[in-house]
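Aim 2 progress update. The chain analyzed this quarter is reproduced below.
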Amino acid sequence: MYEKITPPTTGAKITFKNGEPVVPENPIIPFIRGDGTGIDIWPATEKVLDAAIAKAYKGKRKISWFRVYAGDEACELYGTYQYLPQDTLTAIKEYGIAIKGPLTTPVGGGIRSLNVALRQIFDLYTCVRPCRYYAGTPSPHKTPEKLDVIVYRENTEDIYLGIEWKQGSEIGDRLIKFLNEELIPATPEHGKKQIPLDAGIGIKPISKTGSQRLVRRAIKQALVLPKNKQQVTLVHKGNIMKYTEGAFRDWGYELATTEFRQETVTERESWILGNKEKNPNISLEENAHEIDPGFDSLTPEKKAQIVKEVETVLNTIWESHGNGQWKEKIMVNDRIADSIFQQIQTRPDEYSILATMNLNGDYLSDAAAAIVGGLGMGPGANIGDSCAIFEATHGTAPKHAGLDRINPGSVILSGVMMLEYMGWQEAADLVKKGLGAAIANGQVTYDLARLMEPPVKPLKCSEFADAIIKHFG
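Predicted structure tokens:
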């Protein structure tokens, strides 16, 4: 099956049932060390994860690591331009769960992102990025401890699908001509808009299937969170991109109010129910006026539509959600993308799970990570129905490679996510405890040490791993 690699002789395969992993006590897990600083951060990560598993389960559970290759180091073994060899794809498909360090992606020309390629090859449609604060971590924010969110980012659609044409290319010019001369004029709402003839052009597909399977996972995650964190916010720019991002919002609400009807309430429904609870005799029109401050200026048709909405909500869910029952449900609301960037800074404790599309999620998860200490502390997971890959969220930083100084926190915390996904919560909790205690005691790598007040002497990457293990207790 393999050209240049050999699986471990001990261990068993992880399988999937109904989209969830079935994990043996001794799973074989492929790992990609990563380019650049991967040479430093992966050994530190492996050491921490192995130590936590050994302490938590006293030898009853153990990971058999299987080294596979991607990026620059794959080219060294498999040949020029062999950035993602078939051996690696076969191993990940066979064993189900993998973890990886950072991989090189050239800007402009050359190969497209290997990270994006892996997500698309294995249909890892959900990118999960938790952003929470560990006490003592330097942060540019005054109250970083208030932010505790999980970004659920759709991973396979949007402009990241990579369907685009270079400016001046024959197909690109033909497409622009076709759009300008036929499709745009045939769509009255576009008026006299025209695409510049010297433009590059790309396609932004957002599907109902892709949107709803992402929101489904986000709601399922909310179901297992503490009651005060059971909220899913649909993040979109639907006020501008009505048929892509606006549709994402609508499809998210549709899923929540059908498939999860008994478990969820929308923000707008909560207003309607709350108004009825405060004033049992409130009329439908009065209730409509309360939930839409601009009600008086609306057209008669629009007013009638909102009144009908109020009537429908009260007729269909008052029995199951009224009289305060909605307060025990998962709240599903939505926010415009540019607004949420501001609100995670000004009102961070109002949000829990942010579900959004590919590009928004890329920006938003990095912005949230910056509040709690940067990408060095930002874990990430890419999850599908039959495979999952956990990864560092930062770049390769080649100038630091081999110096034993870079922060391994991102990969270590991605390992924590992997352990939680496997159901090995006891080991995951040990790592979080150890990492939190190390940071609180000023035992950190240079990137955090130089920002602490007062500054502390930095640890090496390997020493940081040792400090985490010592704080297991």
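The chain has a mean pLDDT of 94. The first helix runs from residue 38 to 57. These observations will guide the mutagenesis experiments scheduled for the next reporting period.
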